[in-house]
Please model this.
Amino acid sequence: MDARPWWQDCVIYQVYPRSFQDSNGDGIGDLRGVIARADYFAWLGIDAVWFSPFFTSPQADFGYDISDYIDIDPCFGDLDAFDDLVAALHARHIRVILDFVPNHSSNRHPWFLESRSSRRNSKRDWYIWRDPSAGGAPPNNWLSLAGGISWEYDTTTRQFYCHSFLKEQPDLNWRNPAVREAMHDVLRFWLDRGADGFRIDAIGCLGKDAQFRDDPLNPDYKPGDAPFMQHRLVYSANGPQVMDFVAEMRAVVDAHSGEHVLIGETYLKPKELAVYYGTNLNGLQLPTNFNLLWTPWKPGAITETVAAYEAALPRGAWPDWVLGNHDQSRIASRLGQAQARIAMMLLLTLRGTPTIYYGDELGLKDVTIAPDQLRDPFGVNMPGIGQGRDPERCPMPWDETPKGGFTTGDPWLPIGRNGPGSSVEAQRRDKKSVLSLTHQLLALRRREPALSRGTWSTVAIEGDALAYRRALGERRFTILLNLDDEPKPISLPDPPGALVLSTHGDRRTIRQRLELAPNEGLIVEA
Ligand code: GLC
Model:
């Protein structure tokens, strides 16, 4: 019997619930909408869905500001709909991963309302309150990741509270054991209701310096970067204590029956990322590996990233790969639509657990948002430097009708469409579409464990052409990727075997020395 945990032989698909499928015509996606699309997940061939938050929230940060951790926001449904969602996905052998937002609640959470009511309130210490510095200035120089500073002055109790994101998202005080226990109960609540794991939001923010020292300046900051990048987040985040908090969360999920996964939002270079696996792997099973996002799209750079990451992994740790999410410009906009196919082939032929961001399987691009359509507070707070996240959060185009089959009402953001023929319906009919390619890649990955588990090695680099090998026992594959839109020759060290899959779907022959077509990717037996 194979004792591998499910989250290793797994492809995760991220759903941004507001934008997946609306069922009640209010223009906002909801849980019943997702249920109606459950067959799509099964057809596509993914194994788990991670849902961005759908808990009770004033929606100041579209669900990342939670005012009740153990209920569903009415705009998304209710607990019955949640139970039906879990049942619908589990019936299709698809796991359910929830977004857990431990660092901050909504400023309208009853805990915060109590905390801010008086310095003597029993929940005062559930949040991070500090006296002003001399002259009434904020307690230190920490900057909010959502723009501005991390401190908001409260006139009633004459102290500042800390918020790593919006002022509507006050940071919980994780040094307080009562906070930790309450948040562990949140994990238990959802585990009892069938959750298979959690993606932990902004995990590094739990590791704040106990002395609240100033962050040092970042010498690499350039005008146009997000304002918080003026500092190196040395004291405001990722301090050593975070690993104690992670180990405790891990113990909570491990104590529950069944096998559960903890994923973390960790924007870190390989060596710092490796720390999040914990001592003897008692931390996160999958600290999210964002390193491909900031790797130049060149064979040497990609190879270096893969090698550096693999080398940094602790013994027994399992790799993780992503190309995008609800906070990042879409891959098809960053690289162009033709290269987005190559990126998908790369993502699905790397060792480890990949996550596909909804719509990337369609090659969707960012949508241009008119000023009056702007929704994301990051875009409002940090105008003109591309920090708004609406462009990558647009509703899924299911069919070719004007509202894309997403809603019967007015969609909360414009439908995410590249043009005619980009919908799910059209692409499912087109055997050469990105969607068909993704579908085939997922089927191949499921059939051939060499692609998820096998060893990885570079075979050849010639100009913009990259070839690497994945091998598990007798099963060996060579993946050839042309990272450019010009034809590129490449030679393989050994005569290639049969062609298994190609991005263009029109290649018939494969030789030891061959010319890759512009933006072509191939998988061949080695
Ligand atoms: C994470 C989320 C992001 C959110 C922030 C605050 O970075 O991915 O969408 O705004 O945390 O919760």
Summary: The CA atoms of residues 22 and 29 lie 4 Å apart. The longest strand covers residues 455-462. Residues 61, 64, 101, 165, 201-202, 265, 326-327 surround alpha-D-glucopyranose (CB under 6 Å).
